[in-house]
Amino acid sequence: MTHIWFVSAPLFGHLDWGGLLKTAQELHARGHQVTWVSGQPVAGAITQAGIPFAPVSHTGWLWPPPPAPALDQIPPQEAVMLRYRRALDTWLTEDLIIEGVDALVDLAAAIGKPDLLVCDPFLTAAALAAEKLDVPLAVGGWPAQSDLNAERMYPVQQSLGEESQARLRRLQAHFGLDGVNFSKGPTPSIVSPHQHISYFTESWYQAESTTLLPQNAFVGGQPTPPQDEPPQWLTDIPSNQPLALITLGSVFTGDLGFFGWAAHAVARLGLLPIVVIGWNPIEPAAKAELIKALPGHTRLLNWVDFNHVLPRTRLMIQHGGMGTTHAAVVHGIPQIVVPHAADQRGQARRGAQAKIGLNLSAHDVRNGGLLEGARAILSNQRVLDNARQLAADMAALGGPERAADLLLAICNA
Q1: What is the pTM of this model?
Q2: Which residues lie closer than 8 Å to 324 by C-beta, 6 or more apart?
Q3: Are residues 353 and 406 in the same domain?
Q4: What does the pLDDT look like over 186-233, one tens digit per residue?
Q5: Are residues 113 and 205 in the same domain?
Q6: What domain range is 195 assigned to?
Q7: How many CA atoms lie within 13 A of 387 on its CB side?
Q8: Contacts (Cβ under 8 Å, ≥6 apart) of 36
């Protein structure tokens, strides 16, 4: 029996990446020993999914980041540098990573080290701990890519790249490691020499500025049939009423104006807005203002089960989170993506390049782009055909079942 650890940051969005948790469930169903390792905040979700959970005191991930100054109150160049630095700090804050590696090594001493460690794409402590434990590493949810060409990098990228290199060198020296699970170029990233599993198609990454590496596998995915009855609020909506799902995931939920603009845009086109604002606390006065700003028939919710709602959804307006984007793709739903940070910009760009939707900026939103974009998508049959074809291509690749085969092959090599 193979023992596999799945190690993630303690955020709900880091459990998915298009199929990571489903892959753990598939391996567990086959009788292998699977342990999900993370912080206590996600323990309930993992346990509910039927996967044994091992808590650690820290995973090395900085969350929440410290409060940021108002970016519109500082010079644009400083604002760009601050955004990049804050992104770097989330996955590469040295003292937290040291604590995370130590926690993983201590866990291995307590329960036995795994045959394979699978980590989410940005969890530095897991990549270092795998080398420290002499355990093969696989990365779930993100393809391995060649490094950026240093000559084509912006000055801010060059500066932050040099800083990330310095941080990694210090961490490797601290633990006496060579950094076998990291790229060596000007912008270091976690790169497993064994396997990267993406839950999209290879063509999804066709227009990247870097080269996809040979250790990638593209396994796609498919919708999961609901295992329970639909919620009452959904059954109360007439079956012939088309829906639009509007969400910013679980992190960027403070952008309340986005919800109002998106809801009014789709309502004007005959869709019923389903607005999902997550569980982050919102001041009662701000929530009251949001409710007043929404069309009267809007359903305002903290969370929805995609498996129930997406089969009835004609359009998704969202932030570009990996799991949210993947859910829309496997259901064949056109989407408008308004990225807020980090990898969301890549998802927005790829969706537009695949001609399944639009990539809009915050400026576009403020200037009426959501209504214009939604009208253009809903009136274009080719966009819907593209979305359905991409969903079919995704389903043909094998999904989590194929991912499980690939991970076991590493253990058996």
Answers
A1: 0.93
A2: 247, 249, 316, 318
A3: no
A4: 889 999 999 999 999 999 998 787 899 999 999 999 999 998 999 999
A5: yes
A6: 3-221+397-412
A7: 28
A8: 5, 6, 7, 8, 21, 24, 46, 51, 52, 53, 54
